[in-house]
Amino acid sequence: MMFEKGKCSGILNGIDTALWDPATDPYFEHHYTIDTVDEGKQRNKVQLCERFGLDLKKPLITFIGRLVGEKGADLLPQAIEDSFYYIGRKMNFLVLGSGSPVIEGRLQAMKGLSRGDYNTYIGYDEGLSHQMYAGADFILMPSRVEPCGLNQLYALRYGTVPVVRNTGGLHDTVVDYGDKNGYGIRFAHATVGDMTHGIWRSVELFQQPMKMQEIRSRMMRLDFSWEASVRSYLDLYASIQ
Prior knowledge:
alpha/beta, 42% helix
């Protein structure tokens, strides 16, 4: 692979910024811009919490995607249980997705343990996914493999802090907020322990409202549009000439 390195050049996917735009998104009514992100996200969070019986005062941590091992979804049930046990019931979890019947069953069974801080929707719901990006404070992506990833790009566009495993495209697009100009939370390994630590950091960050405002503003200024990707392709073609 070392001998082939010079033959390769990586270009990130882009997203449709007209379709994924919190200022105009047709899937929810409380639109917002970079200047009104805190108020807008709070209004959308209110609706999500009311619908799913969650505590509005706690940070809302979500997972959106396929419930399969590739996405690290098999780690979710234990990571959620461990977070409640070791961190305390200081956060909400809302999971949207479908996939492995075993994972689905475990996540569904956990509803009975909720104290107004956990819920799940098994299935595919495009509108709900948009609402969750708009109303959530954090999105979990504990992927074992992620060549690029789109969910974290949607989250950044909507001012939702991505909590990601430091791999592939997640590494390329999410800078830990502990680093210079950072805006996300990264953890090293696809393990329950590492994900739980990322969740703990999310709770700690949520308790710093000024820092949250700063990070949201920084995220929403990032450009992961297809226009930016096209410019990268054009630059690459020009370098070959």
